[in-house]
Design brief:
single chain; mainly beta
Protein backbone atom coordinates (compact mmCIF):
# COMPACT_ATOMS: atom_id res chain seq x y z
CA UNK A 1 0.00 0.00 0.00
CA UNK A 2 1.02 3.58 -0.52
CA UNK A 3 -0.03 6.74 1.25
CA UNK A 4 0.29 10.21 -0.25
CA UNK A 5 -0.45 13.63 1.18
CA UNK A 6 -0.86 16.77 -0.93
CA UNK A 7 0.32 19.79 1.09
CA UNK A 8 -1.41 22.21 -1.28
CA UNK A 9 -4.89 20.67 -1.17
CA UNK A 10 -4.40 19.09 2.28
CA UNK A 11 -5.82 15.82 0.95
CA UNK A 12 -4.46 12.33 1.37
CA UNK A 13 -4.93 9.20 -0.66
CA UNK A 14 -4.11 5.54 -0.36
CA UNK A 15 -3.71 2.80 -2.93
CA UNK A 16 -3.11 -0.92 -2.91
CA UNK A 17 -0.54 -2.00 -5.48
CA UNK A 18 -0.87 -5.49 -6.93
CA UNK A 19 2.46 -7.06 -7.79
CA UNK A 20 2.93 -10.19 -9.89
CA UNK A 21 5.76 -12.37 -8.65
CA UNK A 22 5.78 -14.38 -11.88
CA UNK A 23 5.98 -11.24 -14.04
CA UNK A 24 8.19 -9.37 -11.53
CA UNK A 25 6.20 -6.16 -11.94
CA UNK A 26 3.24 -4.16 -10.68
CA UNK A 27 0.12 -5.25 -12.56
CA UNK A 28 -2.55 -2.93 -11.15
CA UNK A 29 -3.29 -0.22 -8.63
CA UNK A 30 -6.47 -0.12 -6.56
CA UNK A 31 -7.23 3.39 -5.26
CA UNK A 32 -8.52 3.24 -1.70
CA UNK A 33 -10.02 5.88 0.58
CA UNK A 34 -8.91 9.48 0.55
CA UNK A 35 -9.26 12.46 2.82
CA UNK A 36 -12.64 13.89 3.51
CA UNK A 37 -13.11 17.44 2.28
CA UNK A 38 -14.17 18.37 5.83
CA UNK A 39 -11.58 19.49 8.33
CA UNK A 40 -10.99 17.06 11.23
CA UNK A 41 -12.59 14.11 9.42
CA UNK A 42 -10.06 11.46 8.45
CA UNK A 43 -10.50 8.36 6.29
CA UNK A 44 -8.04 5.50 6.31
CA UNK A 45 -7.67 1.95 5.10
CA UNK A 46 -6.01 0.12 7.94
CA UNK A 47 -6.35 -3.62 7.44
CA UNK A 48 -6.89 -6.02 4.58
CA UNK A 49 -6.76 -9.75 3.99
CA UNK A 50 -6.66 -11.84 0.83
CA UNK A 51 -8.98 -14.84 0.95
CA UNK A 52 -8.24 -18.31 -0.42
CA UNK A 53 -10.00 -17.56 -3.73
CA UNK A 54 -7.94 -14.39 -4.29
CA UNK A 55 -10.73 -11.98 -3.31
CA UNK A 56 -9.96 -9.36 -0.69
CA UNK A 57 -11.57 -7.85 2.38
CA UNK A 58 -10.42 -4.53 3.75
CA UNK A 59 -11.49 -2.17 6.51
CA UNK A 60 -12.13 1.48 5.74
CA UNK A 61 -12.11 3.65 8.84
CA UNK A 62 -13.49 7.15 9.28
CA UNK A 63 -12.62 9.25 12.32
CA UNK A 64 -14.68 12.39 12.91
CA UNK A 65 -13.07 14.85 15.33
CA UNK A 66 -15.12 17.92 14.40
CA UNK A 67 -16.76 17.96 17.83
CA UNK A 68 -14.09 17.16 20.45
CA UNK A 69 -16.81 16.37 22.99
CA UNK A 70 -18.49 13.87 20.64
CA UNK A 71 -15.93 12.15 18.40
CA UNK A 72 -17.25 9.46 16.08
CA UNK A 73 -15.69 6.52 14.31
CA UNK A 74 -16.94 4.10 11.69
CA UNK A 75 -15.46 0.91 10.29
CA UNK A 76 -16.66 -0.66 7.05
CA UNK A 77 -15.58 -4.02 5.68
CA UNK A 78 -15.39 -3.76 1.90
CA UNK A 79 -15.25 -6.88 -0.26
CA UNK A 80 -13.36 -6.91 -3.56
CA UNK A 81 -13.47 -9.71 -6.12
CA UNK A 82 -10.37 -11.08 -7.83
CA UNK A 83 -10.59 -8.34 -10.48
CA UNK A 84 -10.70 -5.71 -7.68
CA UNK A 85 -14.31 -4.76 -8.29
CA UNK A 86 -15.84 -3.46 -5.10
CA UNK A 87 -18.81 -5.47 -3.89
CA UNK A 88 -20.50 -5.98 -0.55
CA UNK A 89 -19.97 -3.55 2.33
CA UNK A 90 -20.59 -4.23 6.00
CA UNK A 91 -20.80 -1.63 8.78
CA UNK A 92 -18.81 -3.36 11.51
CA UNK A 93 -20.10 -1.34 14.46
CA UNK A 94 -23.70 -1.97 13.43
CA UNK A 95 -23.02 -5.67 12.72
CA UNK A 96 -21.57 -6.33 16.16
CA UNK A 97 -23.88 -3.85 17.90
CA UNK A 98 -20.81 -2.09 19.25
CA UNK A 99 -20.15 1.29 20.76
CA UNK A 100 -18.47 3.46 18.13
CA UNK A 101 -16.38 5.16 20.81
CA UNK A 102 -15.07 1.87 22.21
CA UNK A 103 -14.57 -0.13 19.02
CA UNK A 104 -11.28 -0.59 17.24
CA UNK A 105 -10.05 -2.87 14.47
CA UNK A 106 -6.53 -4.06 15.13
CA UNK A 107 -6.21 -6.98 12.70
CA UNK A 108 -8.12 -9.16 10.22
CA UNK A 109 -7.55 -12.89 9.84
CA UNK A 110 -9.31 -15.57 7.78
CA UNK A 111 -9.20 -19.24 8.66
CA UNK A 112 -9.00 -22.17 6.26
CA UNK A 113 -12.78 -21.97 5.71
CA UNK A 114 -12.58 -18.23 4.84
CA UNK A 115 -14.35 -17.28 8.05
CA UNK A 116 -13.34 -13.81 9.18
CA UNK A 117 -11.90 -12.92 12.58
CA UNK A 118 -11.90 -9.17 13.34
CA UNK A 119 -9.43 -8.60 16.15
CA UNK A 120 -9.68 -5.62 18.49
CA UNK A 121 -7.78 -4.97 21.71
CA UNK A 122 -9.41 -7.71 23.76
CA UNK A 123 -12.21 -9.06 21.56
CA UNK A 124 -12.37 -11.30 18.52
CA UNK A 125 -15.47 -10.74 16.39
CA UNK A 126 -16.43 -13.79 14.34
CA UNK A 127 -18.03 -13.75 10.88
CA UNK A 128 -18.82 -16.67 8.61
CA UNK A 129 -17.53 -16.79 5.02
CA UNK A 130 -20.61 -14.80 3.89
CA UNK A 131 -19.78 -12.04 6.43
CA UNK A 132 -22.70 -12.84 8.73
CA UNK A 133 -21.85 -12.02 12.34
CA UNK A 134 -21.59 -15.17 14.46
CA UNK A 135 -20.47 -13.93 17.87
CA UNK A 136 -17.53 -12.68 19.89
CA UNK A 137 -14.68 -14.07 21.95
CA UNK A 138 -13.87 -11.72 24.83
CA UNK A 139 -10.44 -12.21 26.39
CA UNK A 140 -11.19 -9.89 29.31
CA UNK A 141 -8.27 -7.84 30.62
CA UNK A 142 -5.79 -9.57 28.32
CA UNK A 143 -4.36 -7.71 25.34
CA UNK A 144 -4.23 -9.41 21.92
CA UNK A 145 -0.87 -8.78 20.35
CA UNK A 146 -0.80 -10.76 17.08
CA UNK A 147 -2.98 -13.18 15.17
CA UNK A 148 -2.61 -15.50 12.23
CA UNK A 149 -3.70 -18.71 10.54
CA UNK A 150 -1.68 -21.83 11.19
CA UNK A 151 -0.93 -24.40 8.51
CA UNK A 152 -3.81 -26.41 10.01
CA UNK A 153 -6.21 -23.66 8.78
CA UNK A 154 -7.07 -22.55 12.33
CA UNK A 155 -6.62 -19.08 13.79
CA UNK A 156 -4.28 -18.44 16.70
CA UNK A 157 -3.70 -15.30 18.76
CA UNK A 158 -0.76 -14.29 20.89
CA UNK A 159 -1.66 -12.19 23.86
CA UNK A 160 -0.37 -10.92 27.12
CA UNK A 161 -2.13 -13.10 29.69
CA UNK A 162 -2.71 -11.21 32.95
CA UNK A 163 -3.13 -14.52 34.80
CA UNK A 164 0.22 -15.98 33.83
CA UNK A 165 2.01 -12.62 33.52
CA UNK A 166 3.41 -13.50 30.14
CA UNK A 167 2.80 -13.96 26.46
CA UNK A 168 0.74 -16.97 25.41
CA UNK A 169 -0.46 -18.34 22.09
CA UNK A 170 -4.02 -19.60 22.04
CA UNK A 171 -6.25 -21.31 19.48
CA UNK A 172 -9.48 -19.47 18.67
CA UNK A 173 -12.36 -21.98 18.59
CA UNK A 174 -14.83 -20.44 16.13
CA UNK A 175 -17.67 -22.88 16.89
CA UNK A 176 -17.40 -22.62 20.69
CA UNK A 177 -16.64 -18.87 20.51
CA UNK A 178 -13.81 -19.33 22.98
CA UNK A 179 -10.06 -19.69 23.30
Amino acid sequence: TTYEYNEETMESSQALHVYSLSEDKEVSVLPLSSSSPEENVYQNTENYIVRSDGSMLLVESVYDYRDPENTKSSYTICAYDTDFNRGEELDLIQAVKGDENNFYVNQLVCDGDDRLYVISDSKIYLFDADLSYQGVVDVGDNWINQSGMGKDGKVYVSMYDQGSNGMTVRLVDFDKKAL
